[in-house]
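Record 1 of the preview.
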Amino acid sequence: MNYDVVVIGGGPAGAISAKYAAQNGAKTLLIEEHASIGTPVQCTGLISVRALKECGLGEGNFVLSRIRGAFVYAPNGEEACIRGKDIKAYVIDRKIFDRELVEQALHNGVDILMKTHFIGLDNGKISVMSNGEKKEIHGNIIIGADGIQSCVGRAAGLPRCEKFLSGIQFEAPYIPKDPEYVEIFIGNEIAPGFFGWAVPFSGMARIGLARAPGRPALYYLERLLHHPVIASRYRGSRMEHVVGGIPMGPPRKTVQGNVILVGDAAGQVKPTSGGGIYMGAVCAKIAGEVAARASRKECTPGEYEKKWRAIIGRELEIGMRIHKSLGKLTDENLNEFIAFVNKPEIRELITEHGDMDHPSVLMQKIMKTGNKLQLIKFMGVAFKTLF
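->
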């Protein structure tokens, strides 16, 4: 089995990489370890309008609801309403969404192997176990889109991401304050180093959290369920229980020899929200195009590294600074920050410039206002690492 480009992993980043490799003239193979695309689900399924467009999809039957803003709850219970002027995001069914992306790849001539596990690499030869049979596949360029653990990255000797968060989530009947608003919960008693959430859709919600290393995520999930807001809206029972990890901070290298990493495998995830589809799609397009050209010796795989870092590298860097700074705040600091966000002039800035995919734009706008010194005071020494 000889291919110009072999993509390991059938998630969004893998499917888009394979599609763009094929569109650029490469004989391409997509390998997926599971028996079904889109399972198991390890995502809140909340994606921005820009992310959907970047994936080359319109509003399909995978869209479950539309989101305009968020209610953010401080540790002391104060609520900040983050409003958007229009639809900011979609709650999606990841199984249907992922399958549509793979179908696009197949329509562009990509071959696919399901129930096929990556075993190892040896001089461009990929060893896999497919339906109980060991096979060898030759690929001029190999794209690892195999998620947070990235067996491809380890086999190629590439470094791992800077840090990892542990997450847990389930679906349940839920009566939200407003079905067009997600609910975010911050505080070290509920989700130290990150946040908890309730994402509403069709009389249900995905309730979960991610947190920095420490006590088990399930411990904090039980605390989240006792939050007054959640407790008043959660109607009991749990479905679609999901446990997973979120990579934070890309490794210093995402290319080694003829191996390219993309998506979660490359830490191309927004450190402020944990969302990876938008940045993964941006980088997957580059990966597919560069891989196709590199397979014909028209460029080197290293061109991918230069291109993706030039486009989103600074956003990821700033996002990691924000993530690290917020992770150092006490509950008292967080209470002060939510009170600051509730100031009319700050709410107006958020409505006008809030962007799920590029939070640095909003931060820079706030820093240019007369509230700069107050914001730094609230954040303390940790915030000073931002600018």
